[in-house]
UniProtKB/TrEMBL annotation:
Pfam family, one: V_ATPase_I
Main location: membrane
Membrane-topology descriptor: Multi-pass membrane protein
Cited function: Essential component of the vacuolar proton pump (V-ATPase), a multimeric enzyme that catalyzes the translocation of protons across the membranes. Required for assembly and activity of the V-ATPase.
Compartment(s) where it occurs, according to its Swiss-Prot or TrEMBL record: Membrane
GO terms, molecular function: ATPase binding; proton-transporting ATPase activity, rotational mechanism
Top-rank taxon: Eukaryota
Name of the encoding gene: LOC108834925
GO biological process: vacuolar acidification
Gene Ontology cellular-component annotations: vacuolar proton-transporting V-type ATPase, V0 domain
Organism field: Raphanus sativus
Name of the protein: V-type proton ATPase subunit a
Length: 823
């Protein structure tokens, strides 16, 4: 199938064609050094050239523009630093870009350096002030809590002293001198105790106390006081719950042990005086310094915020400029230096239609850079496989991504997306058919579509991002679900006579519990979809089972035939007569003599109302082809037709297997004996034929055994796949039935049961359960399930008939997404 294209496309680009990849060509550009930067910049704006790396043998440090990339990397680091600082300060960068204003990279570099140095200095000063402030806050807490402890101890000691003195009054005078002498002796033996105060993290306080006790063998006295509010630790800068402690000890050895333990536990120590006057003076001093520091820190933060807002005004502009420059120099490093070192030579793939635009960009760059020599543009001939390029829009992109997830189409191979746009949502809807649920999906999708401009510029979650990206796929799925729901006549499992009254009426009052024998046809057949009278009868399930199972087989055989027809279109396009006669023809015969025949029998049975057993017909067509059909005969001479089809199906297997390898071997020998040498064509199709027209890519090294084994595997796969793939399409019936039954259970066992209680509370609860079950199970889980099954039917059952998918995407150098990329 030749590439067809309308000639009257508007604008710079011809009309989009999804059937085949855009014709590609390998181009070479020779650019003078003085205009190289501007040339690559203009080509990046154009976004239609995929450069090849001509310096792949060189390391990144050996390339021409390694120093410039390092410079851009340093600027990108500063910009990331600014972004992090703005994020912490809650400053948003200005989103409006002055795209017409061109800024110089040297100016950006110097400005970024100045701003970084200023911001680093402000941060360092602020950190020092904040650390001092946090230390003073802790010190103030120590003064308060330890002061309370010492004050209470002093009051307790005073009370004990007065009690002792009162007890001494009235004792014998003769004993007094002796007691006074003893007291004077005891006072000389008193030991002066030292003490340390500070704060320890609360979660470590018990361990801290235990370790101190063991290290000093119990020769300490410790008191702790809980601080109700969290305090900011001066060292880590994080909030922590702490306790104030006072440790009394005796001796320098004990003191040194305590200091080491405090250091190990991260306990901050602060000086403290026993004198009450000194304590009050220290408290006043600390409070004054805290007020001063608070004012200074506030002024510093205001200055920092003003600086960050200044950066935010130009942030996006600088960010885009640096990213563009880095991308340009990365691309320039892919170009090779001319021997004279005055020119750069680049090679790359571009679409055929882009040649005039590329040449115009080269000329414009030469003029704007005041180059005395223009750039040279020429097309190269090659046998290398070109990349695949489909021009998609916002509607077709998601469908193309579904196909590309399986594999990127080989260059000029027929693109499954053309039919997937319709078949994928339709097969989904066959499994999801309910026009009530379809309307719910449609409303959710319309919200995404109507707000797509707003949502496209926002950061969405992973699941929401996927749903937004596939909004047009979901739109088509919802529309087809409404269509199939109308055919099944199900609205949240409830049938409605939308198009006409039912064609049947009941014979008696117990009709709903009877089979269809209890119904009398009184009107014309229901015009569209399933007659609503079937719902609720005993024969509903057998009737819908039979209908949906046969419909699944018809749809499956139709789509597999479409896949084989696509293989014929590929063979015609690549001018491969071997694939037409020894692949397409026997495959069509085999599939349609068996399962195409089954599809015809289904349609005949529907039209005639016959009671023939199609299982029996198909099984005994193989086991006993000569037996009479008896009551299972659907049309005259059916036995002869079946024998003919069976014979053709058996003949088609060796037809697929044997001739093709021998014909390819003969063609290979003929080429290498000089019988098929011919001058290269001058048309653009020569590239297509050379790169894709080969049988299996074994033109240089032809191994007959490999070709034969490959053909054997392909034949076995197709023969067995014809059976298994047809059976696989029965998932359409199974999932459709499951969806319908689940919907019916939620309606009858939740909603109707809640209505039957005549209680407003139970009704509200039942309604909520019904809504959550419908949304959670039917609109989320069932949607995902049907989506995955439709995906499998396309990837395995449909695409394996023709789609190789061993190409690679066209990835041009473009600035379109540079601003959104993460480093």
């Amino acid at each position: 199938m030749a590439e067809t294209r309308g000639g009257g496309g508007g604008g710079c680009c011809p009309p989009m064609d999804l059937m085949r990849s855009e014709p590609m060509q390998l181009v070479q550009v020779i650019v003078p050094m003085e205009s190289a930067h501007l040339t690559v910049s203009y080509l990046g704006d154009l976004g239609l050239v995929q450069f090849k790396d001509l310096n792949s043998e060189k390391s990144p440090f050996q390339r021409t523009y390694a120093a410039q990339i390092k410079r851009c990397g340093e600027m990108a680091r500063k910009i990331r630093f600014f972004k992090d600082q703005m994020s912490k300060a809650g400053v948003s960068p200005k989103l409006i870009l002055d795209k017409d204003v061109d800024i110089d990279l040297d100016d950006v570099e110097s400005k970024l350096g100045e701003l970084e140095a200023e911001l680093v200095e402000i941060n360092a000063n602020n950190d020092k002030l904040q650390r001092s402030y946090n230390e003073l806050v802790e010190y103030k807490l120590v003064l308060e809590k330890a002061g309370e402890f010492f004050a209470s101890a002093h009051r307790s000691a005073t009370a004990q002293q007065s009690e002792i003195e009162s007890q001494q009054v009235g004792e014998d005078v003769l004993e007094t001198p002796l007691l006074q002498e003893e007291k004077s002796v005891d006072s000389t033996k008193q030991v002066k105790l030292g003490f340390l105060t500070g704060l320890v993290p609360r979660e470590k306080s018990m361990v801290f106390e235990r370790i101190l006790f063991r290290a000093t063998r119990g020769n300490i006295f410790i008191r702790q006081s809980v601080i109700e509010e969290s305090v900011v630790d001066p060292n880590s800068g994080e909030k922590a719950e702490k306790n104030v402690f006072v440790v009394f000890y005796s001796g320098e050895r004990a003191k040194s042990k305590i200091l080491k333990i405090c250091e190990a536990f991260g306990a901050n120590r602060y000086p403290f005086s026993e004198e009450l006057g000194r304590q009050a003076q220290m408290m006043t001093t600390v409070s004054g310094r805290l007020a001063e520091l608070k004012t200074t820190i506030s002024a510093g933060l205001d200055h920092r915020k003003i600086l960050l807002e200044t950066i935010g005004d130009k942030f996006e502009q600088w960010n885009l400029k640096v990213r563009k420059e880095k991308a340009i120099y990365h691309t320039l490093n892919m170009l090779s230096l001319d021997v004279t070192k005055k020119c750069l030579v680049g090679e790359g793939w571009s679409p055929l239609f882009a040649a005039p635009e590329i040449q115009e960009a080269l000329q414009r760059a030469a003029v704007d850079s005041n180059s005395q020599v223009g750039s040279i543009f020429q097309v190269l001939r090659t046998k290398e496989m070109p990349p695949t390029f489909f021009r998609t829009n916002k509607f077709t992109t998601a469908f193309q991504e579904i196909v590309d997830a399986y594999g990127v189409a080989k260059y000029q191979e027929a693109n499954p997306t053309v039919f997937t746009i319709v078949t994928f949502p339709f097969l989904f809807a066959v499994m999801f058919g309910d026009w009530g649920h379809g309307i719910c999906l449609l409303l959710a999708t319309m919200y995404l579509i109507l707000r797509e401009k707003t949502l496209s510029s926002q950061k969405l979650g992973d699941i929401m991002e996927m749903a937004f990206g596939g909004r047009y796929v979901i739109l088509m799925m919802s529309l087809f679900s409404i269509y199939t729901g109308l055919i099944y006549n199900e609205f949240f499992s409830i049938p409605y006579p939308l198009f006409a009254p039912s064609a049947y009426e009941c014979r008696d009052a117990s009709c709903s519990e009877a089979t269809t024998i209890g119904l009398i046809k009184t009107r014309d057949t229901y015009p569209f979809g399933v007659d609503p009278v079937w719902h609720g009868t005993r024969s509903e399930l057998p009737f819908l089972n039979s209908l949906k199972m046969k419909m699944s087989i018809l749809l499956g055989v139709a789509q597999m035939n479409l896949g084989i027809i696509m293989s014929f279109l590929n063979a015609k396009f690549f001018k491969s007569a071997v694939n037409v006669w020894f692949q397409f023809v026997p495959q069509m015969i085999f599939l349609n003599c068996l399962f195409g025949y089954l599809s015809v029998l289904i349609i005949i049975k529907w039209c005639t109302g016959s009671q023939a057993d199609l299982y029996h017909v198909m099984i005994y067509m193989f086991l006993s082809p000569m037996d009479d059909l008896g009551e299972n005969q659907l049309f005259p001479n059916q036995k002869t037709v079946q024998l003919t089809f069976l014979f053709l199906a058996l003949v088609s297997v060796p037809w697929m297997l044997l001739p093709k390898p021998f014909i390819l071997k003969k063609q290979h020998e003929a080429r290498h004996q000089g019988q098929s040498y011919a001058q290269l064509d001058e048309t653009d199709e020569s590239l297509q034929v050379e790169t894709n027209g080969g049988s299996h890519g074994h033109e240089e090294e032809f191994e007959f055994s490999e070709i034969f084994v490959h053909q054997l595997i392909h034949t076995i796969e197709f023969v067995l796949g014809a059976v298994s793939n047809t059976a696989s399409y029965l998932r359409l019936w199974a999932l459709s039935l499951a969806h319908s039954e689940l919907s019916s259970v939620f309606y009858e066992k939740v909603l109707l049961m809640a209505l039957g209680f005549n209680n407003i509370f139970i009704l509200i609860v039942g309604l909520l359960v019904f809504i959550f079950a419908t949304v959670g199970v039917l609109l989320v889980m069932e949607t995902l399930s049907a989506f995955l099954h439709a995906l499998r039917l396309h990837w395995v059952e449909y695409q394996n008939k023709f789609y190789e998918g061993d190409g690679y995407k066209f990835a041009p150098f473009t600035f379109t997404l540079v601003g959104n990329e993460d480093e």
